[in-house]
Amino acid sequence: MLKFTSRSTQKVAFSLLWTAGIITLLILLLIIGYIIIRGLPGFSWDFLFTPPAGGLAGDGGISSTIVTTLYLVGLTLLILVPVGIGAAIYLVEYAPDNRLTRFIRYGVQTLAGVPSILFGLFGFALFVTVLHFRFSILSGALTLACLLLPVLITATEEALKTVPRSYRAGAMALGATKWQSITHVILPAALPGIATGVILCAGRALGETACLYVTMGGSAAMPDSLLSGGRSLALHVFYLATETNAIDKAMATAAVLIVIIVGLNALTNFISRRFQKRMSGGV
Amino acid sequence: MDPKIKIRGVNFFYHKHQVLKNINMDFPERQITAIIGPSGCGKSTLLRALNRMNDIVSGARLEGAVLLDNENIYSPNLDVVNLRKRVGMVFQQPNPFPKSIFDNVAFGPRMLGTTAQSRLDEVVEKSLRQAALWDEVKDNLHKSGLALSGGQQQRLCIARVLAIEPEVILMDEPCSALDPVSTMRIEELMQELKQNYTIAIVTHNMQQAARASDWTGFLLTGDLVEYGRTGEIFSRPRDKRTEDYITGRFG
Asked: A Pfam family for this UniProt protein (chain A) (predicted)?
């Protein structure tokens, strides 16, 4: 008869966990590998530097969508970062624990779970229609900033909370004002964690489509101002895949996008690893 | 000579719980005063009342007066930030910032507005020498403060306090996280520092109080049971409870 000792239970548990890990890794490699292999035939340097021709055939490259993406992500971060980090500093360092701040926290958590198309509809109503920003990079960036605000606030809050209380007490006991201890001790110690959050948001902005579909329009032209409409790379993939027959171009664009996102994630890993090293004193 | 710090009729509460009961105690100038007592007797709270570090705890309330040079530090128009420059503090766990050794010591002067590099160099060297750490770190001033050993970190924290040139130094069980050799070095350092500073130290280590301090107060569940010269408290305690505590019957 088969008897389960604690040792054999451990072995079974280990192999199950190991299998789960391998499956995750395989899925990831499969997706990235598939897109890159399918995308490679459509890829060339010309592809990067010529604008899309538009039309059903999906001819041309992706130069204007790269420019639009840079504008979009840059502008989003410009709006998002001061507001998000400011709100998180307020919530962690200043806000008293009362009904109002508990309500704000609850609101932030709820916003994080709202589907992005709802943010898109909100952005369409407010930025595109009421404020007359039309279908534009500006409307898209403002909408993305709203969508990502809870993400950045939560990430920054977590980073600030990992700063030991003893640093705060130490700074205060040395005659630093609250503001001085925030700017000179707490923020520098939390900076890598905050940077990780910002990069995470940049990655989300790169990949977002639904909320941009209804706020940025789909113009494939090179943007000449922030009030131009446009397509980000992810939106371009969506248009190519749904409105043209150029599936190879869609795959090539997706491959470019995935390379950028993998690069960003590597950067995040690098920063957080340096963070841990610094916190443990091995500079 | 008039004591540097006088505690007069201090009651302290966390919400409804009374932690300190009608405390009257003196901290003579350029002497070391130890506060001893079992865990939870309120000794850290008493120490933190001297630089108003209890202010940040919600629900904390103090009645009575703490006089620094005969001025009540709890009077409403007192500048707390300025008070903490005059009354520095060393904590139980060494808590250097994740910055270089130099930047740790220069932190206080920089917050006070010192920017000239030559002046900062001077203060950092002087403070590290006073804290008996200079010879060990002078070639590595730009190494992280967190890379030092526990005992070195605590001396770094003492140097960091000395750099703001306080009048009083509060030490909250400064050796409880350290090994015996590091503890001995800190105690020697305290003897040097008392030439220039008034020192108040909380300790649960009675040998340390007996060795290192000039005055001792024994605190039990919020009451100051006995206060006097360290020699007398340890050789001829007047109160039975003090005698029981220092002879190790409880605590």
From this structure: BPD_transp_1
* pLDDT tens, position by position, A73-113: 999 999 999 999 999 999 998 888 888 888 888 888 888 88
pTM of the shown model: 0.81
| Average pLDDT value for chain B | 91
SS3 B63: strand
Interface contact flag, A283 B144, Cβ < 8 Å: yes
Contact between chains at A173 and B89 (C-beta distance less than 8 A): yes
Chain B CB contacts of A278 under 8 Å are 98, 144
Per-residue model confidence as pLDDT tens digits over A13-29: 999 999 999 999 999 99
CA B89 to chain A, closest CA, distance in angstroms equals: 6
B103 assigned to some structural domain:
yes
Element (H, E) at A210: helix A210-213
Rounded distance, CA B69 to CA B52, Å? Answer: 16
Q: Find the distance separating the first CA and the last CA of chain A, reported in whole Å.
A: 57
Domain count within chain B: 1
Query: Token pair of A9, please?
Result: 């239970």
| Min distance B111 CA to chain A CA atoms (Å) | 6
Helix B150-162 vs helix B101-111: angle between axes, to the nearest 10 degrees?
20
Alpha-carbon distance B156 to nearest alpha carbon in chain A (angstroms): 12
Q: Identify the DSSP state of B73.
A: T
The ipTM, to two decimals, is 0.85
Contact with chain A for residue B164, Cβ under 8 A? yes
How close does chain A come to B160, measured CA to CA in Å?
A: 8
Q: Does B43 reside within a domain?
A: yes
pLDDT at position B172 is 93
Residue of A nearest to B166 (CA): A174
Instruction: Note whether B101 contacts A: Cβ–Cβ < 8 A.
Output: no
Q: Is residue B64 part of a domain?
A: no
Domain that holds residue B102: 28-52+77-246
The kind and range of the H/E element at B21 are strand B17-27
Q: Is residue B13 part of a domain?
A: no
B48, B80, B111, B154, best to mutate vs chain A, most A CBs in 10 Å: B111
